[in-house]
Amino acid sequence: ANALRNVGDVGSSIQVYKDALKIDPKHANSIIYYSLALKTLGKFEESILFCKKALEIRQDWGMVHRHLSSMVKYKKDNEHFKIMLSLIDDKNLLKEDKMHICFGLSKAFEDIKEYKKAFSFLSKANDLYRKEIKFSTKNSNNWFKSVKNVFSKEFCEISKDENSELGEGIIFVLGMPRSGTSLVEQILSSHSKVFGAGELKHFRKSVDRVFVEADGKKFPHNVDLYPKASFLEVGREYENMISSLRGDSPFFVDKMPYNFMYLPLIKLSLPKSKIVLTERNPIDNCLSIYKQKFGIGNAYAYNQKELAEYYNSYKDIVKNWKEIFNEQIFSLNYEQLINNQKEV
Predict the structure, then answer these.
(1) pLDDT tens for residues 237-262?
(2) Which end of the chain is more exposed for a tag (fewer CB within 10 A), N or C?
(3) Looking at the whole model, is its pTM more than 0.70?
């Protein structure tokens, strides 16, 4: 069930979770992941119900409290609000549970417009998680620079294949997380001819399968060791990987935000694909990221300085891609989209 949910087939995962809960109605992980799947499908009332069932098994389960808080509009007298406040002072509370509950309390205090307390808990939550992970913006900056150096305007020009039909009907929606990629996918996939696949790791996997490490060099440092035809091989690999998901849909949306790193490679490997770059007010974008507890990855998100540094690196590399590909990138402003969808 988790595997199905992770590849974007949430609908199928629901039935597997149901089957698991028939075998063991009190299986804690099945309950909470079923709740997460329900939330993804917009079934919030049912998702909340299963959150509460999970908390009956373990009341101080921090991740469940955070998950529940994302679906509740709080008032001062909210019972769940009171429970989280009582738990946060428990000296026996595990650090991981405390971190999640701090995120939940931040959301609750924001709802009741006590913004100083909201940000205080938000900072505590991020600090607690940041201490548990290893990350350096120096590494990410160096990687971005390497990609820029390899995929120069001249290199992209001599490497493209204008006769290839690969990528027909494929739309990549990319940008920073929390910049509007989900909203854009929802709008596009509301059309009967468009399949929204969610955030797929398939393109990066296709790159790794073709540009395998050679002479001790990994992508992007090994690109010059492979023939130019390798780019189209990446495209074929990607199309094969998505074929079962896409079925006979004329249009297919991949909204993995971090594909912005591979934008030149997307255009070289899938020449007929379309690129939608979502952009948002930088402060709003970064604050929205800082308020989010992500799953795996996004390690830059839990420290304000590192978040700003990563965002600046993102802006730098995207500026470079815009100069190279120009009108081949459709830049979509989030604020304009929510204010006037039809005009955008």
Answers:
(1) 999 999 999 999 999 999 999 999 99
(2) C
(3) yes
Read off the tokens for 198.
């969610």
- pLDDT tens digits, residue range 55-112? 999 999 999 999 999 999 999 999 999 999 999 999 999 999 999 999 999 999 999 9
Read off the pLDDT band of 7 (50, 70, 90): low
Q: By CB neighbour count within 10 A (0-12 exposed, 13-18 middle, 19+ buried), where does 8 fall?
A: buried
Fold that domain 2-130 belongs to in CATH:
1.25.40
DSSP calls for 105-154: HHHHHHHTT-HHHHHHHHHHHHHHHHTTS---HHHHHHHHHHHHHHS-HH
Residue 68 neighbours by CB under 8 Å, 6+ apart: 48, 51, 52, 55, 80, 104
At 253 the three-state DSSP class reads: strand
Domains 2-130 and 137-339 share a fold: no
Q: Regarding the domain with residue range 137-339, which homologous superfamily does it belong to in the CATH classification?
A: P-loop containing nucleotide triphosphate hydrolases (3.40.50.300)
CA–CA gap between residue 121 and residue 104 (Å, rounded)? 9
- Give the strands of the sheet with 274-279, arranged side by side: 194-196, 251-254, 170-175, 274-279, 329-333
* CA distance to 106, 128, 146, 148, per residue, from 155 (Å): 47, 44, 14, 11
- φ/ψ (deg, to 5) at 246: -70, -40
Q: What is the rounded CA–CA span in Å between residue 231 and residue 219?
A: 13
- Strands (E) in the chain, as ranges, are 170-175, 194-196, 251-254, 274-279, 329-333
